Amino acid sequence: MKITLFIPCFIDAIYPKVGMAMVQILEKLGHTIEFPGELTCCGQPPFNSGYWPEARRLARPVLKRLENAGAIVIGSGSCGAMLKSFYPQLFAGEPEEAAANALSAKCFEFSGFLVNQLGVTDLGASFPHKVTFHDGCHGLREMLGKQPPRELLKHVRGLELVEMTEAETCCGFGGTFATKFASISTAMGEVKCASAAETGADYMVSNDSSCLMHLKGLLDRQGRPLKTLHLAEILVQS
Amino acid sequence: MTGNATQFQNDADRLTSDLTHRQRIQSAMTKYYAARYPRQAIFRDWQEGRQTAAETKWAGINELDKHLAEFEKNAVSRGTSVHWTSTSEQARQVIVDIIRRHNAQRIVKSKVMTSEEIHLNQLLESLGFEVVESDLGEYIQQLKNEPPYHFVFPCMHLSREEISDLFENHLGTAQTHDPEALTMIARDVLRKKYIEADIGITGANFIVAETGMISITENEGNARLTAALPRVMITLVGIEKILPRLADLALFLPMLATAGTGQPLTCYNTMYGGPRQPGEVDGPEEWHVVFLDNNRTTLLADPEQRDALHCIRCGACLNVCPIFKNVGGFSYGTTYQGPIGSVITPHLRGLQDWKHLSSASSLCGACTETCPVKIDLHHHLLHNRRNAVAEKPGRLESLLWQGFTFLMKRPWLYQTGLRVGRLLQPLHGLVKGDILDPARAWTKSRELPEIAPVSFRDYWKNRPLVSAGDRKGGPP
Fold first, then answer.
1. Residue pLDDT tens, chain A, 238 long
2. Burial class of B250 by CB neighbour count within 10 A (0 to 12, 13 to 18, 19+)
3. What residues of chain A, 147 to 206, have a C-beta less than 8 Å from chain B?
4. CATH superfamily ID and name for B50-294
5. Which of A41, A51, A177, A211 best tests the B interface by mutation, with the highest count of B CBs <10 A?
6. Predicted model pTM
7. Which CATH architecture has domain A121-235?
8. Where in chain B are the domains?
9. Residue B126: which H helix or E strand, with range?
């Protein structure tokens, strides 16, 4: 199958290894990967800030470029939700409405794509560590639910998954929210980090690098030994 | 920023650093979850129940005019007086007129959030009437001279010790930290108040159009006493509390109790159908139902957000909201706190003055997920943000987003920016955390992520071309 990867800006710039891991996994499964390098931003930051015309200006090239794509896979529930759930809202009543709905139908979050579309749960990975999983809100509530990432983790050799009490509670990143309301964002992140640390896990894993960027920033500042990793990075460990 | 926005930011900054406060709210909510979710699981199908509830409210709100008229016709036929008020001002006037007509002096109230909305107590007290809240939490807040902290749990932010101190100061009672003993202190005071009161003011949880009745659901029996003992009963209720049919309560009462407090049903569920009828021995001589619009029809006129009128004020969206749990109820500065308050307050009290509450959200969607009537809460926060910008864009912010869009629309410029960022990154340490740090809002509490030496784009561009089947190696 030809799969198009949509790489969010923060994966491109800060966490390229997540993108590389996704490529490695999908290619190992025999698929051909296409990466449209001319696409930079899905438009979520201006969209979430209320600047919808600006968001449309960023989203239009995405719609156009991905018009003929097959499955589009995104390694972040946040940008994934933008393409899948919010483009149809953003373009409701606009000439691109039909294109936005068509795009929505073929966008998948990475772990959901592996489990639900490809029927793959065991990638032969091995990671002998104690891990707790953070559900990114957009992935959890706008895209796929709780199960796919856990299904994948369950099949990783040696990995012990310990659920934290606050697994489904927002980490407090929220894009521009993190700086506009920094004190609230930080307090939310502290709740998350404390809950993760309480499990005694070595790693906090998520399928959304944007949450992890915020959480890692907090963990490092607090000097907690807990490390963060994207799910895809675990699935390539052997 | 408006004064409200500044106040919110300041309160949020202060309360997020108050760990005792955060801990108290967090632990109260943990108890709520423990009660609610097992209770919810007993429903044959909670999700189907939510769907039915949403559809029922949809039917009620979509033909609100018809249903309200039906209520009026049925209620009037049993001697109830129905008053229609468009504004807070009108509602206050109607209520004051009724009180004055009866030469009344003492007023007892059960829990009425709409009266908070129209600032009724302040007015009545300024006019020299005695007003006593009879809901325990509301009574405590009244003694403290504070508005409700949470529209379902008015004094959840207080400890037993604080309540005991409050009673000691105001009522001269002995210290006790036993919840039952504290309740008995309030009861002693309140029982006398019911008997002395000339007027009882209640709210309503539901307006039943089909039968011209209102439904009040409560745990203390105080609304029953407020309604039954004084000779005049006044019910102040927002027009959106409509339900088309009596049978709808079969779903809504248990649903409200479950979502609100994790109970199967609240302890007292009462239907009020009119004043004392000929031949009856008790009940109020007069019953006045005061319908309050107060910009609810503005919300009704907005097809995108109309479903916010479905709200049954269970408070569940507050209870699951990570913002609420960290900033608490008072920071909002609104009658209705939490996600529902952030959605509706801009409609009720002005978008530009209250838009900041819609921005103060990470859009996590926990509210929408928990809402028993399926209000699309977190998406409405996005709609409010969009509407606020469309109406009056911020000059600097507008420029910022145009710049961002300009940059991101040009991959070469974005990549150049990334390279420049990578070069400047080592210098960040010089300004990190101080006033010159452009990332100060982030770095005040968090470490800044590092730009990777090789971006994904560069990796992709430079990787050797081989067929998919040959790729076995990992990333460099």
1. 999 999 999 999 999 999 999 999 999 999 999 999 999 999 999 999 999 999 999 999 999 999 999 999 999 999 999 999 999 999 999 999 999 999 999 999 999 999 999 999 999 999 999 999 999 999 898 887 789 999 999 999 999 999 999 999 999 999 999 999 999 999 999 999 999 999 999 999 999 999 999 999 999 999 999 999 999 999 999 8
2. exposed
3. 168-170, 172-175, 177-189, 191
4. NagB/RpiA/CoA transferase-like (3.40.50.10420)
5. A51
6. 0.95
7. 3-Layer(aba) Sandwich (3.40)
8. 1-42+312-392, 50-294, 411-469
9. helix B120-126
